[in-house]
Each structure stands twice: as C-alpha cells, then as structure tokens.
C-alpha cells in the first residue's frame, strides 16, 4: 500500500478517558507505520499513485460540516462515507470532540487537514494518512496517534 497524501496537524480536541467512551471507539486494524511531521505543522504531501491507479475525483470541492460536540471519529466517518473512503480509526484510549461548529468548503483531503488543524498542542495528536487500496479499490484514511 502506497500513501497518496500524508496529512499532519496539531489538534485541540477534548480528550476523555477511554473507559468513559469505550463503546464509541473501534480499532479494526492496527496502523503499521506512524508518519508525522517533526514540526507538527499542517502539511499535505502529494505522492504519486501506484502503477495502474488513477485518482478519480481528487481535489473536488465540497461543503463539509462539523457540529460542536461531534466526535472526530463520527465526523471523519461521515465524511469518508460521503467520499467513498474507508476510515480506519487507530486511536484507542482517546475520545476526541469538536470544540466548535464550522463548515469547510474544500476537497476531502483539504477538509480532513482543516479539521485536524483545528486542534493544537494535543499530546499524541491524531495523524491522518490516505492510501489507495487496490484490493478494495478505495481510498483508505488511517487515523492514528502521533509519536509524542
């Protein structure tokens, strides 16, 4: 699996202990490789697709909504469903909640970067990586904690 975009940002979600929200968290697959920017700045790096794969609707603008109090996992799941992207949530031990309501008019990748950028200075901040999975013919967004 080769990454298409690497999205990194400081985050400022509210964190609650896992025990209070254990039923809300899932971890279908462990994330095998942690990728982060040493400075923690918001970055999107374009990377060439794997041979034989094309990006279909990449960078098309859309209105993405966030409501205060929504969990980051729910926000990204909703957006991923709308973008026909598989979300893999690898943030066991964290419950992350949006601190404000907002609308983002951008591509899926830019919207994910924008929502992650809303959170600053969070220890173990979530990092998003988007892959093109040839086996399921879909993009896959993996959200995992940064290495402090």
Question: TL;DR of this structure?
Answer:
The chain is 17% helix and 32% strand. With 148 residues, it is an alpha+beta fold. It has one domain (2-51, 59-145).
Describe, in plain words, how this protein is organized in 3D:
The protein is of the alpha+beta class. The protein has one domain (2-51, 59-145). It contains three helices and nine strands. The chain has helices spanning 18-21, 72-82, 108-117, and strands at residues 2-8, 14-16, 43-46, 62-66, 85-89, 95-97, 102-106, 126-133, 138-145. The strands form three sheets. A five-stranded mixed sheet has the order 3-1-8-9-5, covered by helices on one side. It has a two-stranded antiparallel sheet with strand order 2-6. It starts with a strand and ends with a strand. 32% of the residues are buried.
């Amino acid at each position: 699996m080769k990454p298409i975009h690497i999205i990194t940002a400081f985050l400022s979600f509210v964190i609650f202990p896992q025990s209070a929200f254990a039923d809300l968290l899932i971890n279908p697959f462990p994330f095998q490789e942690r990728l982060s920017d040493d400075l923690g700045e918001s970055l999107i790096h374009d990377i060439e697709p794997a041979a034989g794969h094309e990006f279909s609707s990449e960078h098309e603008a859309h209105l993405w909504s966030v409501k205060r109090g929504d969990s980051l996992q729910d926000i990204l799941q909703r957006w991923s469903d709308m973008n026909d992207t598989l979300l893999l949530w690898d943030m066991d031990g964290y419950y992350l909640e949006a601190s404000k309501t907002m609308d983002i008019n951008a591509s899926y990748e830019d919207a994910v970067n924008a929502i992650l950028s809303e959170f600053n200075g969070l220890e173990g901040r979530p990092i998003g990586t988007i892959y093109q999975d040839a086996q399921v013919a879909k993009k896959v967004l993996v959200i995992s904690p940064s290495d402090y």
